[in-house]
Amino acid sequence: MAYKKSKDRRVVRNRRVMIYTFLLILALFYISAHRTLEKERGADRAEVEMMAGGDGTAKVLDGAADAGEADPLMEAGTSARPAKAQSEVWSGETGLTAGQASRKCEQDANRAQGDELIIGESDLWCLILTNAEYPVPEDYTVELQVIPGTEQSVDVRIYEPLMEMLDAMREQGLAPIICSGYRTLDKQEKLFNRKVQSYVRRGHTKEESYALARQTISIPGSGEHCLGLAVDFYTKKYHKLEKAFENTPEGKWLMEHAQEYGFIMRYGEDKVNITGIEYEPWHYRYVGVEAAEYIKEHNLSLEEFYIEQSLYG
């Protein structure tokens, strides 16, 4: 009988050990799962703070730097930073205006997804092509805004980036002057006919004069200026629309920075055989920041850009 009681106690004890062991294992699993969940929540909170561009961003990045760890955003490229934080960096370190810094941030964020340029329907208004083969659409209308201090006007949609570009130039001590903006089709035709007559007076035939004129000015029915999207520059010291404009400080600045504001030199020196228009370093056309950066980077004319992006149709 005593032996049976002793055996029963051992069985009970063993069962208790198994139960306690099982409960201990459950507790360990619970603690591990809880810690993992807390880490994930902490990471989520840090990400939210970073996306908000608040003080949390600086703490997270500074902490990684102190620990000698690589900033995951930097590894992905600066364009992977939250838009607000990145635009503040560009604005503070490069002297860009807030509007330009914001557009630059959006542009680089899009490019981080790939080199391919994505053009939506909302972008097409500033990509309209007009040349000898493509006249200005008959139903084309434009809302204009006058450029301060001039008698010139442009499409209201390009007014802000144009003003930002002019302000940036003036901050550098430059003195850009817009001498030509929007033109009506009637005015464009008069200018063209006047150019033809000037060649006739020099002894050329009408046919020769027409051919020469179309190399320097858009033919009737077409014209960048008739879209309200193009402007011609000269400077306070240089009042000529000639090749030498490229050597002025203003001309050099535009060649280097115009694309940052959405403008391209429409008629490049190495694109004459494509555009049909002689080199015009003073003539800039708005196409939007992303398209302008792409065109500049790949050294394209607007005609070539149309072919590459399959915009003809």
UniProtKB/TrEMBL annotation:
Pfam families associated with the record: VanY
Chain ranges of the D-alanyl-D-alanine carboxypeptidase-like core domain: 153-288
GO molecular function per UniProt: peptidase activity
GO biological process: proteolysis
Cross-referenced InterPro entries: DD-CPase-like (IPR052179), VanY-like_core_dom (IPR003709), VanY/YodJ_core_dom (IPR058193), Zn_M74/Hedgehog-like (IPR009045)
Sections of the chain in a coiled coil: none
CDD domains hit by this protein: LD-carboxypeptidase (cd14852)
Protein name per its UniProtKB record: D-alanyl-D-alanine carboxypeptidase-like core domain-containing protein
Lineage: Bacteria, Bacillati, Bacillota, Clostridia, Lachnospirales
